[in-house]
Every structure is written in structure tokens, then in C-alpha cells.
Amino acid sequence: MKAPGLSSRTRLDRFISSHAGVTRGAVRALLASGRIEVNGRAASEINQVVDQFSHITLDGQVLQDRAAIYLMLNKPRGVVSATRDEKHRTVIDLLDANTGNDLHIAGRLDFNSTGLLLLTNDGRWSRRLASAHNPVEKVYRVTVEHALTEHYIEAFAQGMYFPYENITTRPVTLTILSDYSAELRLTEGRYHQIKRMFGRFNNKVLTLHRIAIGNVSLDPRLTAGQYRPLTQIEVDGVF
Ligand code: URA
């Protein structure tokens, strides 16, 4: 489920040379005679940068036609955030046939966690979303077994040391909503992070539901298991 690499950006002459089986010199001639189009416009520069989603034709023949896909899914409980699994249903199994072929998950949720999951075939986008240099806030609603107290707020804000990874968690904003429920805002996603943080208080997480990633909120019209494409505003504005 590894995201595709950044190397999907390449120079147009290199792309044409390898996809049409012609020399770079021949590509110059093709460009000069206007026979190559990128996204519907005649291309003229050999060093124009194209990517995996550029629509590229030579004499009207399509060399590349791959649409970028960005989906939000309301993940139900009991489904694995993976593209394949031997035992359990995966989030890809929830998508219409062929929709999920090419997709990977931008930020997993645990088996029993629910809510907003983003899927895409755009590795650059998902890497940017996961980048530590550009932390994107994620918002969760949680219910727990034992009553919450003010101590949680400070402990979560201070960060907790996890010896296994030898890291201290970044500050988490915890807002108590009721005795047994809270909203959490965090900018990282360590393995089982929220459950482990409540584990320090011997308090079991009963439900964990993600409601937002950056500027994208879970669409309330999506029932568990449903999904929809992101709008262009959501794609561009998530960071
Ligand atoms: N933290 C967890 O413990 N589980 C999740 O699914 C997400 C964050």
C-alpha cells in the first residue's frame, strides 16, 4: 500500500521518447511540427514537465490518459485500512468495482475506528498530507470506559513519551465533551496513538471516529461505508 514515488514528474521529451520509442532528437521535430499535445494544447518545449495525470497525445493517439482520483470514505467498524487482507474486508472492498484498482490510503484508521478516510492514486498529494514538515491537523471524537478529568487535558497537551519509538508525542488538544467523550486534535498519527495515550490512564477507548483531516470534514450525508469524490476545493485546500 505504498504511495507511488515522486518520480512521476518528468520532462516531456523523456516521456515521449520512452512512450513512442523515438530518439530525443526526433521528439524535437515532433514538437516543432505541433504533433504532440499536453492537456489539449500543442506542446513546444522539450523541458516542459509532465506528470502521471497529464493527458498526452501524439498525432491524436493517446499516450497517457490517467485521471487523478481523490475520495472520502466513511469507514465502518470492522474493516481494514489496507488494499488487501487475507482475513478481513478492506476499505477497497467497499468501493464500486474497478474504482479502487489504483488507490492507496492517505492516513489509516484502526480496524474498529470509524469515520473519515481519504483514498487517492496521487502519491504526491498523499505524501504532502503525511509530511512531517507540514503537519495537518486531524480531529477525532472518542468515547472511553472511565470518566474523563481535567488531568487528561494537561497530559495530552504536554505530550507523552513512547519508549518503543523513543519519541514524545506532539501536543494534542483534548476537549472534554461529556464525562465519557472528548474531541481530540492532533498533528501526527503514531501507531494506535490515541488508544495508547488513553492507555496511560488505564482508560479503554470504546469508539474512535475521525471527523476531519486538515480542512476536509467528513460529509455528514455519508453513512458508514459510503464514499464520494472530493471537490477540487477539498483537494487543493486540505493542507
Ligand atoms: N489513533 C488510534 O489509536 N487509532 C486510530 O485509528 C487513529 C488514531
Question: What's the topology here?
Answer:
Blueprint: E1 10-11, H1 12-20, H2 24-32, E2 36-38, E3 41-42, E4 49-50, E5 56-58, E6 61-64, E7 70-75, E8 104-105, E9 114-120, H3 123-130, E10 138-144, H4 150-158, E11 161-162, E12 167-168, E13 173-178, E14 181-186, H5 193-199, E15 205-213, E16 216-217, E17 227-229, H6 232-237
Parallel strand pairs: 9-15
Antiparallel strand pairs: 1-4, 2-3, 2-5, 5-6, 7-9, 7-17, 8-9, 10-14, 10-15, 11-12, 13-14, 15-16
This protein binds uracil.
Describe this structure in words.
This protein has 239 residues and is of the alpha+beta class. The chain folds into 3 domains: 10-64, Roll (Structural Genomics Hypothetical 15.5 Kd Protein In mrcA-pckA Intergenic Region, Chain A); 67-135 and 223-239, Pseudouridine synthase I, catalytic domain, N-terminal subdomain (Alpha-Beta Plaits, 2-Layer Sandwich), CATH 3.30.70.580; 137-213, 2-Layer Sandwich (Alpha-Beta Plaits). 20% of the residues lie in helices and 28% in strands. It is built from 6 helices and 17 strands. It has helices spanning 12-20, 24-32, 123-130, 150-158, 193-199, 232-237, and strands at 10-11, 36-38, 41-42, 49-50, 56-58, 61-64, 70-75, 104-105, 114-120, 138-144, 161-162, 167-168, 173-178, 181-186, 205-213, 216-217, 227-229. The strands form 4 sheets. Strands 7, 8, 9, 10, 13, 14, 15, 16 and 17 form a 9-stranded mixed beta sheet that branches. Strands 3-2-5-6 form a 4-stranded antiparallel beta sheet, covered by helices on one side. It has a two-stranded antiparallel sheet with strand order 1-4. Uracil (URA) binds next to helix 5.
